[in-house]
Amino acid sequence: MSLLRRRIDSSSASTSFSSPRQQQHQQPPSPSKNTNIPMDQAVQVLYPRSKITQSTTQTKTSRHTTLITTNAQQRFTQLLLEHGECHLQDWAVVASSRPLNDDHHLNSHTTTPTRRQPPKSKFIMDDGVILISPSTSMGSITGRLRLCSRSVVFEPTDVSRGIVRCPFDRMVHPPTWKDKMGVVQCNRHYVMKTNNVIGPFTNVEQWCEFRFLFLHSDPVKFYELSQTLFHMVKNEHSPTDTTTQNPQLTLKEILHPIHNRPFDPSNYIDARERPLTSNLRCSLKSPLLTKSGCCIVTRDYIYFQPASGVFTSTASKAICWKISDVVATARRYSGLKDVALELYFVSNGSGGCVDVPKRRYGRSSSSGSSGSKTSSTSSSSVLLAFETTKERERVLHLLPRQIPCHTDASFLQQAYVAWKTSSISNFEYLLLLNSAAGRTYHDLSRYPVFPWVLSDYNSTKLDLMDPKMYRDLSKPIGALNEKRLDYFRTRFHSMAQDLEGDSSAGAGVDQAFLYGTHYSAPGYVLYYLIRNMPEHMLCLQNGKFDAPDRMFYSIEHTYSSILENHTDVKELIPEFYDPSAGFDFLINARSLQLGTTQTGDRVHDVKLPLWAKSPRDYIKKNRAALESDICTKMLPKWIDLIFGEVSRGEKARDSSNLFHPTAYLGPSDLESMATEEERMQAELQATEFGIVPDLLFCLPHPSKMVNDQEDDNENDNGLNFFAPETGRAVIIEDMNDNDDHD
Fold first, then answer.
1. Nearest C-alpha neighbor of 343 from the set 324, 329, 363
2. Which pTM does this prediction carry?
3. Which one has a higher pLDDT value, 42 or 612?
4. From its phi and psi, is residue 673 left (phi > 0), alpha (psi between -120 and 50) or beta?
5. Which residues touch 387 (CB under 8 Å, ≥6 apart)?
6. In this structure, are residues 28 and 719 in contact, taking their beta carbons and an 8 Å threshold?
7. From CA 387, how far away is CA 339, in angstroms rounded?
8. Is residue 455 classed as helix, strand or coil in its secondary structure?
């Protein structure tokens, strides 16, 4: 049977797919712990945070930015690299550069024409590509040379100068060195963040030579490693490395020493602390960013020691969180692997992060003072991805048992009861359902998903008592327009017939789909958040913003697109319904240069509906619509589409809610694949396309009492509508009561 054939199975929806929440149906689990969780406190940690607040003295970073920020003035981040590229080591250097003509660059077989060099202060353009720029004629400029897995990056100390990135695939030969001088020649380089302004990368199409004088070290290590990396990227066979025929293996070998560096005991807050775990290799994850390191758990703290450079002998300063500050947990995914853990903390403005005092091994800081925080963040949670599910469960087991886990069935049941009794709002219930289904702000491929509730963005007045103002929540986005749905259905049947005759494709109807795009994916999340996450969008789109006409510039235009466009079925995100999180995603506070549409309109602040007086008013009215009686009656139908019985399987097909097969892949599908390459490709496709949330309900979601009356057409199934226990918790036999601490 084809790997994806389980998408359309004759069995019930609860067993149609490989998902951690889908096992053979059993009696619904009864709450075994956390029976008196204060739900209002549990949901507060799930609220969207205001994005970025900067001042001259400090930088506060929301959950939407990297959790690893060692210097507020540091301009370089991995978002400036290719997606997935690693930063390996950096050195203090003095850089210079000069343009090259065809006869100057070494070992070149290209035919770059000779050009007369203009004054170095000017830019020369050709079809939108910069041919000559100040970066090609630098004098002696101090800064940091950063060696990355696919490029060499120079970050000038002077912020008025742009960061220069030279990709290995734009070099004809690998970097060389002589007399403490590293030399890089390339026919294209990129300039980023000139004057520290975020914008599209400048593409400089010109042969250029960069020279780097190493100030405090020998360039031999730079030369040797860059040789290997160059041949990895070029996929050639290096004379000094016999393993370069397998680039992935080679990169793993390069990273092996830093990934296996042991935890430094001097990072303990108290010298008397003792670890309850061994060194656990893990990574700290935030949108599009991964910081590798190791984790140690003690009785009072959870430590994360970031990996340092390849050639750095000393361990990095650790980040740590007080266990007593943890108010909730949730099992999470890393790609398609079920190995991650999200920890939610008391919202104290530091994300639970505490200072690690600088001290010698075995000796406490005598002054009691500490250095600056390793993490500067207002996020209320962190996401740690471990190597195995067992290691994740080991850490979870060491936390106090009264801490609720959002992905436990008992917690989900309590959330439902709280919503049913109006103890929590519709907005808060959807936040809890998203968290229970594996969605998190730290992962753009599993970002929380919210519905379009309103359908009228043309009227001058919004009447929330008028049902015509609302979108039909019983239908997915792709089915709201009947004419467009007919197109999708015709394509589906044609696809099924074509695949039926292809023996290598498996059963046609099993792999055919209605929608080739998903309702939630990294590109769609950043579509909405481009104004406060521009660097993430540039990273995702290779240093460019999208065409102005395809950007998020008008609420009315976006809603019209999801009704008419054959490639647009995206839902919304929580920020549209939470006034307390601010409205910075709707205004261009950074004055980003986002371009001009074909009609001549500048893309700046988002154009609001006529019935909205301001961005804040728009969000408030959106929230009021979500909490209205009309929406409350329809909301269980939408929950069924996203988290429930019609989210997959035959019922999804019958409800016009069927997406591309990659949207339904899970950990067990990954394990069944034969090769590492096949697994990597599947993960890449799934995370870029979008992933259906975990199955939470196997029967129709009951309605909620509105005005002391329930929907007569809705049968309340008690607690029998919950999906079976997830099976994600792995029982570790060597755990015993001695490890517990309450």
1. 329
2. 0.85
3. 612
4. beta
5. 280, 281, 282, 339
6. yes
7. 6
8. coil
